[in-house]
Amino acid sequence: MKEERKEKQKEDEILKILEENARTSDNEIARMVGLDEEEVTSIISELEKRGIIMKYKALINYEKAGIETVQALIDVKLSPERGTGYDSVAERISRFSEVRSVRLVSGEHDLLVRVEGATMREVAHFVAEKIAPLEQVRNTVTHFLLRTYKANGEIYKEEEKGKRLAVTL
């Protein structure tokens, strides 16, 4: 039992390291958590097989890269289906290629859907034509994302070098 807890603790440490920087080498992780590189490689492989590590991704500042993209958060109010609740409609919405994430939330709405498209018009059209007409959907509210200041724990604005505070007398 104690050994299982220690193993789980090492897995958790490795997951946190990879979440912060997925490019951290197995060798570096081994040094950070006090294991052999082979043990770390084995643990990561097992976490991938179990579906705990689902994918490795880069966090990209599209604005800085000059890539035009429009993102919106859609609040969706639903009528739950008998037997499946919100799951079946959430899974259906998840299948659209424009949809980046779908989350069940508490509050006035039931789902929070993040959508991406080339233009505001394209995103609005998608919501009006694909999400709003679904039988279980009672209401949608679209919030276009205009600027990102922080995402996944990373601040997007670069530190200004040499900026000094004004001196007042």
Quick summary:
It is built from six helices and six strands. It is an alpha+beta fold and 169 residues long.
Word description of this protein:
- By secondary structure, the protein is of the alpha+beta class.
- The chain folds into two domains: 2-49, Orthogonal Bundle (Arc Repressor Mutant, subunit A); 62-150, Alpha-Beta Plaits (2-Layer Sandwich).
- It is 38% helix and 21% strand.
- The strands form two sheets. Strands 2-3-1-4 form a four-stranded antiparallel sheet. Strands 5-6 form a two-stranded antiparallel ribbon.
- α2 (26-33) packs across α3.
- The radius of gyration is 22 Å and the shape is extended.
- 11% of the residues are buried.
β-strand number? 6
Structural class based on helices, strands and sheet pairing: alpha+beta
> Structurally, how many domains make up the residues?
2
- How would you name the CATH homologous superfamily of the largest domain? Lrp/AsnC effector binding domain/regulation of amino acid metabolism (RAM) domain
Keywords:
Alpha-Beta Plaits, alpha+beta, two-stranded antiparallel sheet, 4-stranded antiparallel beta sheet, 6 strands, Arc Repressor Mutant, subunit A, 169 residues, extended, single chain, 2 domains
SSE blueprint:
Layout: H1 2-20, H2 26-33, H3 37-49, H4 62-65, E1 70-78, H5 87-94, E2 99-104, E3 111-117, H6 120-131, E4 137-145, E5 150-151, E6 154-155
Antiparallel strand pairs: 1-3, 1-4, 2-3, 5-6
